[in-house]
Design goal:
Structural class: alpha/beta
Shape: globular
Radius of gyration: 27 Å
Number of helices: 28
Largest sheet: 11 strands, mixed
Strand order of the largest sheet: 5-4-3-6-7-16-15-14-10-8-9
Number of strands: 16
């Protein structure tokens, strides 16, 4: 095992295989854990050497013995190693599902290695943010070997653009290991890529290096290095998916990057194949288009960058799957006993169950859609469309306005992230004192002014006084856009993609059937709803109603207004909650609605939480409602003031009743309080 921890996997296989043969027929093999333990370790070592067939046989034998001898812990370890085998063969969907399933059953002292492998699986398909969170939450032990974890963390830092951090970690690994180690070879490869990434200006080359790093590597065999492995550019490793004979995503991604190297500024099309789901390929396409001076094509690549994770991550709709009923119920019961450790435990179980819901295969071909830009420009009708994205280590805004597309640099991504983090922190930390009745609107802070100048100042000469449609990469997060000084009073709609706006039905949705709901607290929620009933004659009013009654009413209205206490959910926006008399209404509850109101207004704290900040489809209450057919949601991604919100909502609904456009009414009455207009 010391050889295995040092990365000398071939020697480990020799010793363990010899031990296995010697145990056959020996009395000691009848001792419960001996033979299944050896087979479990042998299967993992063979996986790390690329001997996948033998590894499968030994791991299945180990699992069978563990089950027959009633050794549950060894059975879990064997399943864990089978998940590693799936990962190294390129069956990442199965591996991620296995690791999430084991996360709820594996003892704490075994969670660290499991989380490392889950992070590796997530990285292999490009889910960098998810991998980072997985590593950050792992219960690390001080007495365990951390080489594999440090290697995965170095990969993560490199993909996030932190080249100095990646170099520091890789050099730390190399200092403690000999030249014959698999870990040493992987560290050398990481070091080479991290060092070269700071000098190379070829996006396709950088993307290919990152693609090869994402794929797990196996140790080279003893003797001369074999030839013919396309991804093998270092003597210290072989690409595991190549060794397994895997094709599909890896082959398509390499082919796409070769085409981008040959044709700078190539537009996306059916030629991408499954590479349309690879974030580094899409980033390379965007960057090559920008280098070629073609921001219009860059916008098409950026649009694909908003949808690449579909099929890889859970969708809001999957929260209504039958297998989610039990974890949802357990989480709800835990909340009833207090939002503490028990609730967080069941939230983790809920999230793992959500990842295990079957999804459309990530390797299946996707129907290619026609370019969206022409339709978008036709439908803007005097508006400006802004897509915030990333090129290299720089934040970039792509602006479609007046029939043309422009690109504007916003500065280093790390600096933009820092400014956004400070601004959002100011909005989410509770104030030390409540505002007095006579207080004016909160004054503009330095953080708000900095974010406004960073995100908007370079664009203002292009967009002028136009209203905005905004799509943003995850680094922007859940921003209260109306509180930025440069957007005060300006209509802004946040849309998941340009296509969601460009291809929307042109008809104006009805608002005849109005539903007004208030929770038990705060007191002003009741006053707010009572006042709104006057602006909507004939509205259905539900005061202190239970969850089931409200869900039934939501499916039968055109405009819904919910006023009450809102809270952020544990771990995932799909567990965000709106407090009711009989317990919380969870965001995931809305995914089972047979239909949804055309316009929903969430007059609560955190109602807009989860729309941005992660790859894949929007989550939270907004994502759930949009997935069920709601066209527009008005909500705040940050805490709001009850008294000022009550007054502002009256004015907002009066404007709606007189036929005002939703985004304009939000800008005039609610934007300065943190509310945003989501959807079409």
């Amino acid at each position: 095992m010391r050889l295995a921890q040092a990365g000398r996997c071939d020697q480990t296989v020799v010793l363990l295989d010899d031990t296995r043969r010697r145990l056959r027929g020996h009395p000691v093999s009848e001792l419960g854990p001996v033979l299944p333990g050896v087979l479990t370790d042998l299967g993992l070592a063979q996986t790390l050497c690329g001997r996948f067939g033998a590894a499968q046989d030994h791991l299945h034998e180990a699992l069978s013995l563990a089950e027959s001898r009633r050794l549950p812990l060894l059975g879990l370890v064997a399943r864990h190693n089978l998940g590693c085998l799936d990962l190294y063969r390129g069956h990442t969907d199965t591996a991620i599902t296995t690791f999430h399933d084991l996360a709820q059953r594996m003892p704490d002292d075994r969670q660290g290695p499991l989380r490392v492998d889950l992070a590796e699986a997530l990285l292999s398909v490009g889910l960098v943010e998810e991998a980072g969170r997985t590593l950050a939450e792992a219960p690390w032990r001080t007495d365990e070997d951390g080489t594999a974890r440090v290697l995965v963390e170095a990969k993560l830092r490199l993909m996030e653009g932190d080249h100095p951090g990646a170099l520091l970690l890789t050099r730390r690994i190399r200092a403690g290991l000999g030249p014959g180690s698999l870990w040493n070879g992987l560290a050398r490869r990481l070091e080479r890529v991290a060092d070269g990434a700071t000098r190379s200006r070829a996006p396709a080359r950088r993307a290919r290096d990152l693609l090869e790093l994402r794929v797990p590597a196996v140790a080279p065999p003893f003797g001369p290095k074999p030839s013919g492995c396309p991804g093998d550019r270092s003597p210290g490793h072989r690409n595991a998916w190549d060794v397994a004979g895997g094709r599909g995503p890896l082959t398509d991604a390499r082919r796409a990057l070769e085409r981008l190297s040959e044709r700078r500024g190539a537009a996306p099309g059916p030629w991408l194949g499954t590479a349309v789901r690879d974030p580094h390929v899409l980033r390379a396409g965007l960057e090559t288009s920008l280098l070629a001076g073609d921001p219009a094509t860059a916008l098409e690549w950026a649009e694909l960058g908003r949808t690449w994770a579909e099929g890889l991550t859970p969708t809001p709709e999957s929260a209504s799957a039958p297998r989610m009923a039990d974890p949802t119920g357990r989480y709800r019961l835990a909340l009833g006993r207090g939002a503490g450790p028990e609730a967080r435990h069941h939230a983790r179980r809920w999230e793992s169950a959500h990842w295990r819901v079957p999804r459309t295969g990530s390797h299946a071909p996707r129907e290619h859609r026609l370019p969206v830009l022409e339709t978008l420009l036709e439908r803007l009708d005097g508006r400006a469309f802004v897509h915030y994205t990333v090129a290299g280590s720089e934040a970039v805004a792509l602006v479609a306005v007046a029939g043309r597309v422009h690109a504007r640099g916003l500065g280093p991504l790390v600096r933009v992230r820092r400014a956004l983090g400070r601004f959002v922190h100011e909005r989410t930390v509770p104030r030390t004192r409540p505002p007095r009745r006579s207080d004016p609107d909160r004054p503009v802070s330095g953080a708000a002014a900095l974010v406004s100048s960073t995100l908007l100042a370079p664009l203002l000469p292009l967009i002028g006084n136009r209203s905005l449609l905004v799509t943003a990469a995850p680094y922007v997060g859940d921003l209260p856009w109306g509180q930025l000084p440069g957007l005060r009073g300006r209509p802004v709609r946040l849309v998941p993609t340009a296509r969601s706006w460009a291809e929307r039905p042109p008809v104006r949705p009805r608002r005849d059937r109005v539903l007004l709901v208030c929770g038990p607290e705060p007191r002003r929620a009741r006053l707010e709803v009572a006042a709104l009933a006057g602006a909507h004659p004939g509205a259905r009013l539900l005061v202190h109603a239970g969850r089931r009654r409200i869900l039934d009413a939501l499916a039968r209205c055109d405009l819904a207004h919910l006023a009450g206490h809102g809270n952020v959910g544990d771990r995932t926006p799909m567990l965000d909650r709106f407090e009711l008399r009989d317990g919380p209404l969870l965001a995931c509850d809305l995914t089972a609605l047979p239909s949804a109101p055309a316009l929903a207004v969430l007059s609560s704290c955190w109602g807009g939480h989860g729309f941005g900040g992660a790859p894949g489809r929007p989550g939270g209450f907004v994502g759930a409602l949009l997935a069920r057919g709601t066209r527009t949601v008005v909500a705040s991604p940050v805490p709001v003031d009850d008294e000022r919100t009550e007054v502002a909502m009256r004015s907002f609904h009066r404007e709606l009743a007189h036929g005002a456009e939703v985004a304009e009414a939000v800008a005039e009455h609610l934007g300065h309080l943190g509310f945003c207009c989501y959807g079409t």
